[in-house]
Here is the input.
Amino acid sequence: MKSKNLGISALLCGVAFCWQAQAYETAARNAILMDFDTGEYLFEKNIEESVPPASMSKLMTVYILMSKIKDGSVKLDDTFSVSENAWRKGGAATGGSTMFLSIGDNVSVENLIKGIVIQSGNDACIAVAENISGSEEDFAILMNKTAKNLGLKHSSFANSTGLPHPDQKMSMEDLAILSHHIIQEFPDLYHYFSEKEFTYNKIKQGNRNPLLYSMEGADGLKTGHTEEAGFCLAASAVKKGRRLIGVMSGMSSNKERSEEAERLMNWGFREFDNYKIFNKGQVVATSKVWYGKDKTVDLVVQDDVLKTVHLSQTDNIKTTAEFDEPIKAPIKAGQQIGELKITIDGQSPFTVPLVASKDVGKVGLFGRFWANVKYFVFGAK
Here is the structure.
């Protein structure tokens, strides 16, 4: 196996930072901060613990509904009917958040989305569940199946609303992953999360997400609050083209939720940045070829190599190309030849494939004979 240290710090020589990473603390019982583009976790606190998600679990209800819109089985101007059950269980009389639907209403899907993401309406969630699956119980089965398909390992659902139930649990990691899916999969629908108010039945309500009013670039996603869960928030914001997702639970007040969430997000933007270590198709190394019509082949990365790095570590990025040479022809463009190993102080090493940049055909019988002669006589390959 041949290893070539590529001295990647030279690529980042225009950026120099001298301070060291500082430990970060939060009053939240559970919290995660994720970079959207790289999927890197910038901060973790009890992220795999399954806890009551309160209304943040409405994100799964919205995900399923938006999936139906994306696949064409539901349209924004379709109407869903409101049952007495949805009105009674999700109405104002229960003490929970409500869209103020009325029994027998036929409500557009678009208005139900707004009623969920802006007003956090429990009645809107139940109406969606009943119209998609026939009952909220059957919709919960769909929620659990969807969670499994998305790789959410620490979530279980018993209802569409997040109202207290012993089987209604999610982890901060799962909520961050689900938020990532919503933003990535539904770019034409995601704007509803940033709308600050919505009026239905002549009742205007404001979006409960405090960051929409206090933090530049904030555009989602969902608050939550129950006595057991505390004050919770799944948030996302964009600054200078870079998006972060932060999820927190277990805070003691609406004020603490707002302050802690904004502080965590701003810390992530301030302390970290994304660096493109290699561009898609960029030549990383060159390997000799055995029995090839070309004597060498370039090894490239198939996609941009993007990494989230603490600003104090930008001079501590090391890359090594690992491959066996010579490579025996024939070679196909895109064929994996080796790996690029990237090491950053304070982070686990990771690898990306190195592939051949082009086809390399195999020489004929005479060419192979001459290659063998050169090898045995001159030791050249």
